[in-house]
Amino acid sequence: MNGKNTAVExxxxxxxxxxxxxxxxxxxCEFEKPKHEGHGDRAAxxxxxxxxxxxxxxxxxxxxxxGNLNSEFIDRTEIAGPGFVNVFLSGKxxxxxxxxxxxxxxEYGAVNLGNERKVQVEFVSANPTGPLHIGHGRxxxxxxxxxxxxxxxxxxxQREYYVNDSGLQIDTLGRSTQAxxxxxxxxxxxxxxxxxxxxxxxxxxxxxxNLEGRKFLDVPEEESLxxxxxxxxxxxxxxIKADLEEFRVSxxxxxxxxxxxxxxxxxxAMEDLKARGYAYEQDGALWFRTEDTIGxxxxxxxxxxxxxxxxxxxxxxxxxxxxxxxxxxxxxxVWGADHHGYIARVxxxxxxxxxxxxxxxxxxxxxxxxxxxxxxxxxxxRAGEFITLRDVLDEAGIDxxxxxxxxxxxxxxxxxxxxxxxxxxxxxxxxxxxxxxxxISGVLREYQNRGGKLESICPNDITEEIxxxxxxxxxxxxxxxxxxxxxQASRELAPQTITGYVLNLAxxxxxxxxxxxxxxxxxxxISMGRINLIMAAKIVIASCLELLGVSAPERM
Length: 556
Prior knowledge:
Layout: H1 6-20, E1 42-44, H2 46-54, H3 58-68, E2 74-80, E3 84-89, H4 91-104, E4 118-122, H5 134-152, E5 156-163, H6 168-184, H7 199-212, H8 221-246, E6 253-256, H9 257-262, H10 265-276, E7 279-282, E8 285-288, H11 290-294, E9 300-303, H12 311-325, E10 330-336, H13 343-352, E11 360-365, E12 368-372, E13 375-376, H14 389-396, H15 398-405, E14 414-417, H16 418-422, H17 429-449, H18 470-480, H19 482-491, H20 496-515, H21 524-548
Parallel strand pairs: 4-5, 4-10, 5-6, 10-11, 12-14
Antiparallel strand pairs: 1-3, 2-3, 7-8, 8-9, 12-13
Helix pairs in contact: 1-3, 2-3, 4-18, 4-21, 6-7, 6-8, 10-12, 14-15, 17-20, 17-21, 18-20, 18-21, 19-20, 20-21
């Protein structure tokens, strides 16, 4: 797996050889995109970095670097500012970029950062106490896209959903369903103070009535509670899985919390912490030394005095299972933003079990404001007043929903404009990108209708003349940066890098398309060069959309 652009590598090699000629070895340097237009196509700041070791004026060093540059991809150089080496690229560079993309196809951009190391991405993990809401949907899109990007960059990825199938919330779900069951049968009932009030609880109760009739009216509530807990949580979990599947989100494993307790994983984790000196007993409870470990305001309870483990104890056992039993080399969790204060605590626990906390990353998912008709839709999960992921999918569709969720950093608040998401026009960003792909597909279909054969196109035969056009150069130049964008998205766990890049790429393609004749160009070599260029653009756009989990339509 390489996925890089050999033209870019060769250009950077020429810079490194030029620097080495000055007698300086092992200096990492590459050309970068200039921050300001008119400062060349690429720029290098190596001269400023070499000023101290060489004890020379950086502009003089820049002159020497420029004089040593030997590359067929460089038309000319200039020295700017305190010592930047700006280079202006030849048409041959852009032709080579397009040739690389066409030769590598779908592998273009697939840089190998992971070397098949095992990484687990755990995301969504919503309690099965109600249907997924739009906040869960954002977490699903982010986690899934990160898994796609990591896999594309050489990691051995496992996707996991942690199912909280026990504890207070599941108990409350069971009692809420049980109360609605009694209510629908006109039997005296007491709805829990913090019960789940959504209409879906009535739906669950009706299903139980259809299945079991009135049988639970004559059974003590505590005896029948387990049935209501189990039925409600399993039914909700089934709906969650169906929604995620439709949302193009799949998991390799659904890990039930109950497994930790039933198989003694919590107990063994606590014994391990005690043996390592990170846990101690006091007042009948077991405590974790968070105050000493991370400067927490107090130590945290692991096992209560009544013998019941806390969520923290379960989480330690769970992450111990990830790192030690299943031997993941890296673990990435996607949590709601309200868990920010919990990150340091879990990192401390990972250190306590003998693993490197730097191998544990947490992405926080900030709230989503749903906007309809210019107004924010009010929501309250506990009161049952919320917009489900299913509602949004029904209104906006899968592609728009995923793209919109991935347009901003996950830890920043997101305004989701439903009216814009439904719009079939260039104002809608996902439509704008998909239309670029469909537009290219249409040109290529017409080329074939006229007797052309795509399989006979030679990627080594791209005339440099087409890159005299500014829009063609800009399109090829933008395509050359795709491997860098993928690397950034992978290293920073940032799908929004890909959405921003592909939006920009689509705009540059549309500008090229509107100013360059392709099939009706009388010069056949120019026409074929432009076909090669748009074929490369199609490959990269489709690759971006695949990483985002968005479809790449051939027609629109």
